């Protein structure tokens, strides 16, 4: 089930960028990212209320006390992602935009895994992982040329 959900999430982010890129050409570049977050925030608020029984299952005092300050800023990278994808989609197209996007996500993930940054479980950058990464970068270059 987790692989299916991840595939659905990947499909959704791919479609979001394509649709936002189209809408930016019909409206203005700043509108689709705003709309994405407005619609997404509404749906996520409903999910939050259902998941946490109206926020009652969260120990807010403990969360504010124990979570690092930067953990509360998780929306900033998401907003940057939506803006950049929206701006680049009409210029570069889905194949190039998403191949570079996936490659950059893998570089970041490999670094975070290798050092255990942000509380992630530390997983060393083994030779097979590095070879797989090199193959992926070669694929990105092939798609981008």
Distance between the termini: 35 Å
Gyration radius, to the nearest Å? 18 Å
Mean pLDDT equals: 91
Number of strands: 0
Low-confidence stretches: none
General form: globular
Helix content: over 70%
In DSSP terms (H or I, runs of 4 or more residues), the helix count works out at: 6
Q: Which band does the percent of strand residues land in? A: under 5%
Q: How would a textbook summarize the main sheet? A: none
Structural class designation: mainly alpha
Report the order of strands and helices: HHHHHH
What structural keywords apply?
145 residues; globular; mainly alpha; single chain
Q: Can you lay out the helices and strands and say which pair or pack?
A:
Layout: H1 2-26, H2 31-51, H3 60-66, H4 75-92, H5 94-115, H6 127-144
Helix pairs in contact: 1-2, 1-4, 2-4, 4-5, 5-6
Could you please describe the fold and organization of this structure?
The structure is a single chain. With 145 residues, the protein is mainly alpha-helical. The longest helix is centred in the N-terminal third of the chain and has 25 residues, at 2-26. It starts with a helix and ends with a helix. The model has no long low-confidence stretch (mean pLDDT 91). It has helices at 2-26, 31-51, 60-66, 75-92, 94-115, 127-144. The chain is globular, with a radius of gyration of 18 Å. Helix 1 (2-26) runs antiparallel to helix 2, helix 4 (75-92) packs antiparallel against helix 5 (94-115) and helix 5 packs antiparallel against helix 6 (127-144). Helix content is 77%, strand content 0%.
